[in-house]
Write a structure and sequence with these properties.
By secondary structure, this protein is mostly helical. The protein has 2 domains: 209 residues, no CATH class; 256 residues, no CATH class. Helices cover 67% and strands 3% of the residues. It contains 26 helices and 3 strands. A 3-stranded mixed sheet has the order 1-3-2, with helices on one face. α8 packs parallel to α11. The two termini are 26 Å apart. The relative contact order is 0.10.
Length: 544
């Protein structure tokens, strides 16, 4: 009919509508992707606002389901599936897992100013205004949280909320110092907003201590039905979680057997780890050591032609911001796919806290010993997350592909890279590099098993802790920390799940589709963006 838009044009508009609606709830994620028109925006987390968001999401999902696959090119039909997941995932958080009623971490963890300070994408004055807007919105968000939280909340959620919240004051102070370097006026503006935000945070934390902590529960599990649905909305996976558990057990057994073979039997494992732990840098040399490993691993990728390195590229190492140290050992802040500024990566490494007693400082340095730190650098930088996001930035895919970010794809790729580096010979004939890689693989295997056990099998926190002690060779305190993480972050299955899906795709397609070329396989894999791993093989073979 004259004047009637084609199905592809109509779908383009629907795609835009879905993405815009998604960002209404996730403006911080839009900023992370490089969409700075969302700077300073904080979502309205009142019940009325999120109920309205869910209602509109349901309307958009109905519109997506009404689009026939035959009306779209094959690649756009896949995009439709991704758009359905893009809406279904936060809908699950709001309706099924009820995060805003069950977990105060969603409120204190939602106040982050890092992206405005670490990336030089706009004048400092513009970024300082975004900081002020965020701080000014914090009191309402925390008040909404206090109003919405259930009367009884899981104890681990409360404990970690207090840990995160206690670091926010220093985070706000960093933001003020950042603005004040530019001008006293900007610093004063941030200071005024910071004082109100600080007061709101302290009030929220005080209420957690006085109202929620005395009646805290140990009931944190999603349950089998919601856990299975989580696998679908996050990763497009219908595979029963019990089958995934068996795959994780098999991977754990393979890694344990290889470790024992290197160590000359179970009795030699502790001795091998102790050799690694003793070879660590000083507190002052931790960041420079990590920077040296960044340069070395980049050269390793080039020398072995493992995957294309888009240029320009540069990654610098910095200390983890204070507020993020409670939950992070090391992390990557990459350039977003929409960012028009420099493509720098920022590799955060958590330093020793000078206030810690000497034994704890030594324990931290042992955990970040040189060999394990190099394996972490493979994961976070080359050829892991930073390289992955350089490809994400250079991809020419659809709007959907540039917005969708699967946890199991991103973490699975980085974890796969640890094994890839060993396969390519990063350790030479020395056993240490492979032992470090297996150490981290055992950790990720146990995370998958703990996630399923804690949320579907009645596993207790002490049992999950013992899993990490017995099968990942962790000491008691870090094992407890890993077990607690599983209560609020069941998706930490993503490392092993994603790695196994990538290895399955490699085995199935390497010869048939890529003529045995690992580089061609890796380049195609990264060209897909960061899609749900349930659709991985389809995405690697579909054209048009």
């Amino acid at each position: 009919m004259p004047g009637h838009a084609s199905p592809s044009v109509e779908f383009d508009q629907l795609e835009r509508d879905v993405v815009d609606h998604f960002f209404e709830l996730q403006p911080g994620y839009a900023v992370f992707l490089g969409l700075h028109q969302y700077d300073g925006r904080v979502p309205d987390l009142s019940r009325a606002a999120t109920d309205a968001w869910v209602a509109k999401a349901d309307t958009l999902l109905a519109r997506l389901k009404a689009v026939g696959s035959a009306e779209l090119a094959p690649a756009r039909a896949i995009d439709r599936s991704l758009l359905e997941l893009l809406l279904s995932s936060p809908r699950f958080d709001l309706v099924d897992s009820r995060d805003l009623e069950r977990n105060p971490m969603t409120y204190v963890g939602g106040i982050s100013l890092t992206q405005y300070m670490v990336r030089d994408y706009a004048p400092v004055a513009d970024r300082a205004r975004a900081i002020v807007q965020t701080l000014e919105a914090a009191p309402k968000m925390l008040a909404d949280g206090a109003h919405r939280l259930d009367a009884v909340v899981a104890r681990p959620f409360l404990t970690l909320s207090l840990a995160i919240g206690s670091g926010l004051a220093s985070h706000f102070e960093e933001a003020e110092a950042f603005a004040r370097k530019e001008s006293g006026t900007l610093g004063d503006q941030v200071h005024a907003a910071r004082e109100r935000a600080d007061a709101a945070v302290q009030e929220f934390l005080a209420r957690i201590r006085s109202e929620w902590m005395p009646r805290a529960t140990d009931d944190f599990a999603l349950g089998a039905e919601r856990y299975q649905k989580l696998l679908w909305v996050r990763e497009g996976i219908r595979t029963p979680f019990e089958e995934i558990r068996r795959s994780g057990e098999a991977d754990l057994a393979r890694n344990q057997a290889r470790l024992e073979a290197i160590a000359g039997g179970p009795g030699g494992v502790a001795e091998r780890f102790e050799t690694l732990y003793q070879d660590h840098s000083t507190a002052a040399d931790l960041v420079p050591t990590a920077q040296r490993f960044v340069d070395e691993t980049k050269q390793f990728v080039r020398d072995h032609d493992l995957v294309t390195i888009p240029e320009p590229s540069f990654c610098r190492v910095e200390e983890t911001p204070t507020y993020g140290r409670a939950l992070s050992t090391a992390s990557m802040n990459p350039p977003g796919p929409f960012d028009v500024g420099r493509a720098d990566g920022i590799y955060f490494v958590t330093p020793v806290d000078s206030a810690w007693p000497a034994p704890r400082q030594e324990e931290w340095l042992r955990s970040l010993n040189r060999v394990m730190l190099k394996n972490i650098t493979v994961h976070e930088v080359w050829p892991g997350h930073y390289l992955q996001f350089l490809h994400f930035r250079h991809s020419v895919g659809s709007l959907t592909r540039k917005v969708f970010l699967s946890p199991s794809f991103t973490e699975g790729w980085a974890h796969y890279c640890e094994q890839l580096a060993i396969e390519a010979g990063i350790g030479g004939t020395d056993w240490k590099a492979e032992v470090a890689q297996i150490h981290d693989a055992l950790l990720r295997d146990c995370r998958l098993l703990a996630s399923i056990g804690l949320h579907t099998g009645g596993m207790t926190l002490p049992e999950a802790t013992q899993l990490f002690v017995d099968r990942a060779h962790f000491e008691q305190l870090p094992a407890e920390r890993e077990a607690i993480r599983g209560t609020f972050n069941p998706e930490y299955f993503c490392y092993t799940l994603g790695k196994l899906r990538i290895l399955e795709a490699r085995e199935a397609l390497l010869d048939r589709e890529f003529h045995g070329s690992l580089k061609a396989f890796h380049d195609r894999l990264l060209s897909t963006g960061a899609p749900p791993v349930g659709l991985l093989e389809t995405l690697l073979t579909v054209r048009g």
